[in-house]
Please model this.
Amino acid sequence: MTLNKILLFSFLMIVTACHGQEKNSSLKVSFTSKPSPTVIKNFKSVGVAPDFDTTLVSQYIRSIFEDSKGNLWFGTLGEGVVRYDKTTLTYFANPDGFESKSVFSINEDKKGNMWFGTDQGVYKYDSKLAVDKRFRNYTQKDGLNHIDISRKSILVDKSGTVWVGTHGGVYQYNPLADSLGNQCFSLFPLLPPINVAGIMEDKDGNIWFASSNKGVFRYDGKTIVNFNEKEGLGENYAGGIAQDKLGNMWFTMKNGICKFDGKTFTEYTPKDGLVGTEFWGIIIEDSGIIWITARGSTTRFDPSIPLPNPKAFKVFTPTDGLNCCVQSMFQDKSGNMWWGAGSGLFRFNGTQFYQVKQNGPW
Model:
């Protein structure tokens, strides 16, 4: 995709998804900031309309991940993938062999290799190899017949198997076949060709596949069970996926979220206190607090408060410092919450959101 097309696409996304939203340039917060990192970038940043702010980590942060060494990785639109190791902010893009424009999913395998799901297939990053060989791109030639990888759809399960969700089904990676130079991705045969919206492994080792067209699938290592409208999953749509400490599974739906306790689905919609339309992402903090993103807002939900009770929901809008177009959410090992949005990277100070640019505050 040419640079002009990227700029036009990004501009249209902002206009349609965030039209009329306010920019927050005067938010003041109190925090202890780390020193500004050294920025390593082998290409020149190009500001994306309407902000043209090249001091951002990147305007679109579409995925966030922390690796086993404590490095944070940020998947972007148009600027590759970014690694923050507390002292350095390193950009990997075209000059480094990483040529994809959108990075939707990030994970790490048992050997420390990083995996990136993009709009141009899957990339594996092996830091032990020579600089010009560290990135390996897997596409149709490797058996990955669908190269449009879905958000939060690269899973490395407890056994070390790499799962990849696409808009045309789920694939598994075979490292032995890869080492022999053979096709190393194969379609998982127990699932239909679903449009994957998320993959996760629960505490019991079951693997869940959320789809945007055929409900939710659970794989116990032997068989597949499909949960859909018949069981109470509204409109067969499941976007984000998460599990709480009690073992309940949570999914975003088109009109809200739902909880599955193993037997029944319980829906939570705007009539209960959620705000927004087109609900996208969900994440559950270690504390049990649930964050839900939607068009126009982000909601903080305390499920320990019995409903109906307006105190269970706290709605954040752009006036609270967070741009409406949230692309990703993540909690790191230190308990910090991170948000990637349509105007860069954000953190939360307990009351308001504040923007993290290249020079911080980290």
Observations:
- Confidence is low (pLDDT under 50) at residues 1-30.
- The CA atoms of residues 282 and 292 lie 5 Å apart.
- The two ends are 32 Å apart (CA to CA).
- DSSP finds two helices and 29 strands in the chain.
